[in-house]
Amino acid sequence: MMHKVAIVMGSKSDWETLGIASELLTEFDVGWHAEVVSAHRTPEKLFSFARNARANGLEVIIAGAGGAAHLPGMVAALTPLPVLGVPIQSKALSGMDSLLSIVQMPKGVAVGTLAIGTAGAFNAALLAVQVLALNDQVLAAKLDIWRDRQTQTVLADSHIGGN
Ligand code: RP5
């Protein structure tokens, strides 16, 4: 399958969080490719990955990192593709460090920052599907069904109690 979405992460340990994004993309039959690309430990790889991303047929990039999380911002600086940043829940500061270093981009270079941890990873994939669905009617129809099913599931199980 052609990989339209890249999931890049600062460390293999981030896959525990970002794996959920790949599962949702697979559910929607969206091709994805996951790879460790560390802004600090493999900076040259970061440059070549981001610079070639569009030419390699990618359309959306999900970038997750923890701590001093420079990966999403650096990727966004090097490619015009939309970059969705996922702050990984770090041990020392519970992901506040990751969140603030991803969300506070300077004006002129955009990263779409999601929630800390697995909710953010899941929603990054959902947002990637929504972006791709703009130019893909089959995907758009699947997304409508998925959203409707979620709504129906919540409604069907919405009664809490009473006397
Ligand atoms: C960041 O440091 C990674 O994104 C990861 O969240 C964090 C810890 O990395 P490891 O020490 O587990 O490799 O680069």
Structure write-up:
- The chain has 163 residues and is an alpha/beta fold.
- It has one domain (5-135): Rossmann fold, CATH 3.40.50.
- It contains 6 helices and 5 strands, in the order βαβαβαβαβαα.
- Strands 2-1-3-4-5 form a 5-stranded parallel β-sheet, sandwiched between helices.
- Strand 4, helix 4 (96-103) and strand 5 form a beta-alpha-beta unit.
- The mean pLDDT is 98.
- Bound molecules: 5-O-phosphono-beta-D-ribofuranose.
- 5-O-phosphono-beta-D-ribofuranose binds next to loops.
- 5-O-phosphono-beta-D-ribofuranose is lined by residues 9-11, 13-14, 38, 65-67, 88.
Estimate what percentage of residues fall within beta strands: 5-15%
Q: Which small compounds were modeled alongside the protein?
A: 5-O-phosphono-beta-D-ribofuranose
Please tell me what the overall shape is. globular
Can you tell me the residue ranges where pLDDT is under 50 for at least 5 consecutive residues?
Answer: none
- Mean pLDDT comes to 98
Give the H and E element order.
Answer: EHEHEHEHEHH
What is the count of distinct domains? Answer: 1
Cα-to-Cα separation, first versus last residue: 54 Å
Number of DSSP strands?
5
